[in-house]
Amino acid sequence: TTKRVSTVAVATRKLIGCAVSPGGVIYSTTGMGGGQIHALVTVDPVDGQVTVVGPLLAADNVPRSISAIAFVGAELYGTDTGCCSASNRVVKIDTASGALTFAGAGPGPLGRGNAIAARDGTSLYYADNTGGQLSSVSTIDSSVTGGPQLTGSFQPDTAQGMTLINDVLYIGERSTPSTVLSVDRTTGAMTPFVALPAPTNGLCPTPVS
Fold first, then answer.
1. Pairing between β-strand 144-145 and β-strand 135-138 as defined by DSSP bridges
2. Positive or negative torsion for Cα 55, 58, 64, 69
3. CA dihedral (78, 189, 173, 109) positive or negative
4. d(CA 196, CA 194)
5. Residues sharing a CB contact under 8 Å with residue 121, sequence separation 6 or more, in sequence order
6. Percentage of the chain with pLDDT > 70?
7. What radius of gyration do the chain's Cα atoms show?
8. Which residues contact 45 (CB under 8 A, 6 or more apart)?
9. Cα dihedral sign for 151, 154, 159, 161?
10. How many Cβ atoms from other residues are within 10 Å of residue 77's Cβ?
11. What is the DSSP letter of 14?
12. Per-residue pLDDT tens for 153-182?
């Protein structure tokens, strides 16, 4: 099978993470800079236009850098593990405003760099390095349950980007150039799927047109 990487559009802001809603809307998050704070945004896949939904703020009103995002059904979740006031917990994200609700209380167990994808109704697949474990993290209290050891990466690195497409789990790496790998969810064995010329910031399926 021949695989080809093509640029469809160039986003008008730097994006972190990627998730597609059941209705086909692409969501992402942005970092700070240029007088802008961390925000939830939507992205037009045709022209790259980025539309701000709202700031990523919890009840403490502290801007949060959300490292990864994923939908579980109609609910959007993320990991609050970016710089510099991270709770290291899963957060539920209001897709209408960007408001955050923490899963659990106190400092959480999540590492700074990570990738997540929908697992079931109350948990997410979770990995922080392609040389680590494929774990699961609760969307209720952010507790982490260990899983199989990931194997098969040529150069294990921070996991960035994870998605489940047609029952196949894919994971990306931060290295440059980077590799997207398919993952056997039972054994943790990974198989290189496609090489990318730049780090992977997020992975998500193509919205249904």
1. antiparallel
2. negative
3. positive
4. 7
5. 72, 73
6. 94
7. 16
8. 8, 9, 26, 206, 207
9. negative
10. 23
11. -
12. 988 888 989 999 999 999 999 888 889 999
List of residues 6+ apart from 35 with CB closer than 8 A = none
Q: Which residue has the tokens 């700074």?
A: 112
Contacts of 33 (CB under 8 A, 6+ apart): 14
Q: How far apart are CA 141 and CA 83, in angstroms?
A: 21
> And the tokens for 50?
């980025």
Q: Is the pTM of this model over 0.85?
A: yes
Nearest to 40 by CA among 9, 3, 65, 75: 65
Instruction: Compute the distance between CA of residue 144 and CA of residue 142 in angstroms, rounded to an integer.
Output: 6
Measured CA to CA, the distance from residue 92 to residue 78 in angstroms comes to 6
List, in sequence order, every residue forming a beta bridge with 41; answer none if it has no partner. Answer: 28, 52
What tokens does 74 get?
A: 């109609």
Tokens of 93: 């994200």
**Residue that has been written with the tokens 């929908």 in this structure:** 118
